[in-house]
Amino acid sequence: MTLAKQLLPIICASLLLSACSTGSNKSFVLVPPSESQIEDSIKNQVSLTLNAFTPVAGQALPNETVLDAYQSRDYEPVWIKDEKINMSIYKLVDVLEQSHTHGLNPIHYHSDIIKEYLALKQPSSQQLAEMDVIATIALTSYAHDLSNGRYEPQLIDPNWQLDAPNNNWKELLYLDSATDMVNALPLFAPRSPQYQVLQKWLVYYQELAAKEKDILVSAGVPLSAGDTGPRVAQLRARLVQLGDIRFSTRKVNEEQFDSSLKEALIRFQQRHHITADGAAGSKTIEMLNIPLKSRAKQIAYNLERWRWLPSELEANRIWVDLTNYTVDMHLNGELTSMKAVIGKPDRKTPVFKGLMTYMVTNPTWRVPHRIARENLLPKLQADPNYLIKHRYKVYSSWSIGAKELDSTKINWKEISEDKLAFRFEQEPDEGNALGQFKFMFPNKNEIYLHDTPAKHLFREAERAFSSGCVRLEKPMAFAEAITKGNKQFNEMNNALKTGSNTVISLPNYIPVYLVYFTVVPNANGMLEFRNDIYARDNLMEEAMGYSPIDPRDSI
């Protein structure tokens, strides 16, 4: 089905709405110049205008698409028909001015400039051409940014390698009319329910910050059930402001820390990933006092991250939720989750998409060179028998057929990190760093999911302990889920019984997403603010914190 057919019902409904959306008595009939003169001006102005509106580095603007569209229509204007300005350009301006509700910056879409042209009483052919091209640039740029994201993720964070652009927005410029184009814009936003809930909360925070001051809880001793006083009233009012307490007409003692206030505070603590003890200590008060505007920005960063994902996700997928330290299996219409251990802050697990194609039972661990240099070598220098104790083999190099060496005859203290060229392999056994399983989705980062002997780490709330790979709490359950009902299930069980090192191709290849969100809706539709363990929000702030330049500061 073409985009135009998909949009037809929505376009028809939107036309009815837009027909009664203006009470203006202005006349939109143009006095000369003629349409042919405007077309000639567009042909002369389009390249010049496109160059003038080239964006700052790192921001995407599909200039060539606009040029191609005008060429395909022989430079006929988009927004002028039968000597009238199409009313939809006013609706476009409204949409662009509301782009902040998606966490985008309206200044990127030139609505003020378009309004200046619309205010001209006797525009020339050149001015009409400029208006037409600028409005088309704004339309196209907004459609692109809404569907693909405004920013190039790897220019913000090289560790962020998940970017799934689509080209559906290009079809927008080939719809039948400017009205159809404008009415189609809402369809380009991600369709994920999580995106839609985040966007509603963004609007809530933006509007609340605009009309109310932050209600702050004064510093002091921790507050708990039974306490009274003005700080308790501040706590209650702040929880009302943030939505953790629903407004009620029931009379309460505002300064009394009662059981309902404690329950509300526990809900707040749970959705901010802090100890949910129902007492307002220093950490809780710090979280409570984060300004509404700061939270709105954080939501905006995460909306942009959703726009970097595919517009539609596969029904069967593995979802490695890094900030939640979990692995979610969406398989055969069911969702099961387990705890995970992810990379340390100095060895971040990257964000990317892979395709899981096979798994290995009783794997040998070939130690990555970086881990050998930074972790293994210091242990060898402290204890020359470390390799023997932990069942490692050492080889002369990484080449095929490299000679196995006697580790006790190597003077490890004389070897520096930059000179370490040996290959280390840990044999399969219960102490092997990979445990009984590794699950492979080949990628340039050499990241995979695997078992671990360090089961105690799953008892920790914050689980960033690995060297980059993802450790699974229940690898056996994971292996069963991806093989059950197929011959590979029996093959896996036989390999485990015999202790053999076996490669097992999966019956169905499964997409794997490693994702990073610092704000997500919880099961109750409230926002969950997570610890930014890799400080990625700071990078988003640097990239997205654009504001207009004061003319006095310009060159």
Specify the overall morphology.
globular
**Major sheet description:** 8 strands, mixed, barrel
What is the average of the pLDDT values? 88
Q: Over all CA atoms, what is the radius of gyration?
A: 29 Å
- Measure the end-to-end span: 51 Å
Pfam families: PG_binding_1, Scaffold, YkuD
Family: Belongs to the YkuD family.
Domain L,D-TPase catalytic: 316-505
Active site: 450 (proton donor/acceptor), 469 (nucleophile)
Structural write-up:
With 555 residues, this protein is of the alpha+beta class. The protein is 38% helix and 14% strand. Strands 3-4-5-14-12-11-6-15 form an eight-stranded mixed β-barrel. A hairpin with a 5-residue loop joins strand 16 and strand 17. The longest helix is centred in the first third of the chain and has 24 residues. It is globular and about 90 Å long.
Give a short summary of the structure.
By secondary structure, the chain is of the alpha+beta class.
